[in-house]
Write a structure and sequence with these properties.
By secondary structure, the chain is of the alpha+beta class. The protein has nine helices and 16 strands.
Amino acid sequence: MSFFGLFQDDDSELSKLDALVCVVGTDDEVVYSKSTSLQTWLLGYELSDTLILMAEKSVSFLASKKKIEFLKQLESNKNPDVPAIKFLQRDKSDNDKKNFEKVQELLKDSKEGKTLGIFAKDKDFPGAVMEGFKKILGKFETEDMSNPMAYIMASKDESEVSLVKKACQTTIDVFSKHLKEQIMDIIDGDKKIKHSKISEGIENAISDKKYNPNIDTSQVDLCYPAIIQSGGNYKLKFSHQSDKETVHFGAIVCAYGARYKSYCSNIARTFLVNPSEKIQSIYNLLVEAEEHILSQLKEGTKMCDVYSSTVKFVKKENPDLVDKLTKNFGFVMGVEFREASLSLAPNCEAVIKKGMVFNVNIGFQGMFFILKEASHHVR
């Protein structure tokens, strides 16, 4: 079933709405949001200061003249499931007052005209279009559609999977041709290099044709600043930033991911320098646990069941390590790096669907390392 067909499907969360509104503001520092994700998912582009209104019989865009000229190509779409396309050109002379009166009319004319689906966390986006929308928002009941839309967008079609694979290949190429060689050179040469310096090198390499000759590097950036850690003080979170301490030769943990045309990937690798047998055996257990997770990622399986099954696996092999496991073992990824509502975690009842892409990651907290990560596509 097509996306717009879900508005008529009684089993879909979208059918409970009278309309769905997506507004993207003007904050360039916001990398991930449901509004920008939906735009990219539907259009293949992010359009700032733009409102999309999906009503019962039409899809309307409130945008600048230049953006509307770009969007005009949508009128040639012959898909019978796609409603009529309408355009409202921005008018700064009255701060879009008449445009928002028209938006309000379209909302009230859609089905019962009462309940709007919105993305609650995006309401604080700056920008004139968002400010105008908030002035009429109070006249309707609202439903936060962040989680339902995350589940709808989680299943990727072939073109999306292809973009994720290119992002993954970019990430792997930078690791094998740049990062691995650099880390080995640092170890072999006993060099004093700061974590932050290695991180900066990855940022430069990710868009360097030397490492990625077969891809349009203008479409590549990092999902988050590369994380390099060593010396025993490890934070197994993707919000962590590389510090200015020099690399310590024990366990060196590296994590980063490339985005290609907004689709994400990720990799984490641990370099163990002269590890003890105990450390090596624990690391090997993590590798086996990751393989167990991958074997459980099947269509129809609950995500919490993947988590519990893996905990049982680790408990059987080494019960003393269960309490040190990370709180989740991965998450769905795509246009957004991390979909928090779709995690391999104990309380996530979501069911795995065909086409989902997972970033699988598992580690022991309070110890020396994190397992290598893997992106996995559910076929």
